[in-house]
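Bench log, entry 3. Co-assembly request; chain sequences pasted below exactly as received.
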Amino acid sequence: MTTDIQENEGPDILKEWVGKGRVYEKTFNPELYHEVQQFIFREARLQDIHDYDAWEALWTDNALYWVPANGTDTDPERQMSLIYDNRSRIALRIRQLKTGRRHSQTPPSQLARVISNFEFLTSSNDDIKVMCNVQIFETNLRGDTMWAARNEYTLRRIDGVLKMAYKKVVLINNNKAIYTLSFLV
Amino acid sequence: MDGNQISRWDELIRPGMVHGSLYSDEAIFKEEMEKIWFTTWVYIGHESEVPEKNDFVTKSLGPMPVLMVRDSNGKIQLLLNRCPHRGNAVCVQEQGNRARFTCPYHSWTFSNTGDLINYAFPEGYEGVDKSKLGLGKVARVASYRGFVFGSMAAEGPTLEEHLGGAIRTIDQLCDNSPTGEIEINAGYLKHRTRANWKFILENECDGYHPAFVHSSIFSVSSSAIGDLYGDKAVAVTRAFGNGHTEVDPRPEFRRRDAPMSWFGTTSERLPEYTKQMNEAYGDRRAREIMIDGTPHVMIFPNLFIAEIQLFVIQPISVNESIQHSTAIQFKGAPDINRRLRQQTMGSVGPAGFLLADDTEMYERNQRGLEIREPEYLFLKRGEHRERRDEDGYLIGHSTDDLPSREIWKHYRSMMEAT
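Structure output for the full assembly:
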């Protein structure tokens, strides 16, 4: 047994929140684990300190950045998502932030995020698929907000360097009314 | 008493000026619930959200949840989710399909027409009249072209009387669909906002703010919005009475004389949609519809149709609101619907290029009220250039405060009513 298939038995509502079954990798590669963890820690730091250019440079050319609403495995081609950005829309998001007139980020949110529970998913090609949990503390003009999410990444090695091809952020409370989320999540 | 009441409103709402406490006083909020939200017609949802018999979805009327149901006879019902026995919720699912609702506390079971069918251990209720123990209902339900409204007042103006001239805007929207019908089926983004609902209401037809609040996105994307909300704009604001207001950009779009310009595109880029429109309305009428585009209208107190988006404003408390937003879909027009969704997702909701910044403004407005001076907000922009259009409605420049002034006029009439 090298894999661990997550079976989601139980009521539909649970499937809605934890998502479809995923196949977790059981073999453990300490070097890859370390490299991926360092990559994601760095991504988190760039987000926390609003280093927009360095964060944007982490993406591949055909990237997808997805923050669904109202569940985990919704159909983003049918249902509203909080963010459903292709590569050019990621660039637009960054350009807007960099104007200095993105009022909801002027002044920028003060942020610290903690990332944990890294687990690899099995991958049928050279892409690296990894899940992790994140908690983000945000404070801004309105006050303090706690965010929590399950993140899913597809990382790809391009010219020897890891890049993000896909990042999905499933906010745990994405079926509820949430405050403005204009920092990079 | 009457004299005091009148002088109180004279103080709170002066010509072109409103007192800050109207947005922050909890007693006024409670009064608004009774005199506005639980009296007038409030938008609840769209019939397409419950397409099949026994479909239901949780909506709201002010802070109060409401179950919008298509009952087993196919009729739209607005049921109150409170068991008449002890107050428990008879349904905790957001949406689904079921013919009956059973309260989990003592197993009282209701049909989706609201009637009590059964209670557990019925021998304990000898002589009780079950027909008096149904679920509560919104007193009046009416719909116009699929838009379902509810009023908690058993009597009052009809929905069409309430909508008045704003009916044109709903017709205008539906005409942009080749089937004449719109659908709401993409789910809602729910944006929590620490501000009074009226800051949201007033902003929807405020054409003065976009050039400043949204300059960040306009400066980095191609946008012709400046033509609509600039100093030299030919677009107008209009008040229909009953608190309904719009920004009407049709003068600008008619000047451009280019179909689909309102949507930042051309009919050549939407060949399937254009063909459907021509077949449905004839080339000439289709061209007119596709030049004018969809409306930008705020239907008092909670339905905002923003060209391609639908917003529902929900007051939660004096300083907390929820903006529910979704993409409008034209029934049977898939090639435009994807673009409507993609553009909506970019613009609205907590992470939207536009709405995150609007909402930042609402929250700063609200906090500003903690500062005591000056006590009044100043809404006189364009007072000197108000005029009447050919239908007798007040109109002004697209950047004028006319919508706010007319909202407050209607607000006052509702709050003063006994």
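Chain B has 14 helices and 24 strands. Chain B has two domains: 43-144, 163-416.
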